[in-house]
Amino acid sequence: MAWVLLFLAGLLEIIWAYAMKQSHGFSRFLPTFVMTVAMAGSFGLLAVSMRSLPLGTAYMIWTGIGTIGAFAVGVWVLGEAITPQRLIAALLIVAGMVTMKLS
Known about the structure:
By secondary structure, the protein is mostly helical. It has one domain. The chain is about 80% helix and about 0% strand. The protein has 4 helices and no strands.
């Protein structure tokens, strides 16, 4: 169950990162509100998952899901550039997450 909660926490991290971008420096109410709720939920689920998962593993997987997800949203939703260097960096993050999960 801890892994499911950690995965959901990572998804909420993607949501709050995207909402933060859409808030335009916290000048728009709805994206700021969504960001705040998603952030609280993400931290809460992370904290619960850490009851049974090691700190380093949980934190790395959580940030990795958020990082890769935010990268994907940036590329597919916001039209950000996808360069070979950015793609390699994303693949290295995924490789690190897989290695951490397997260890």
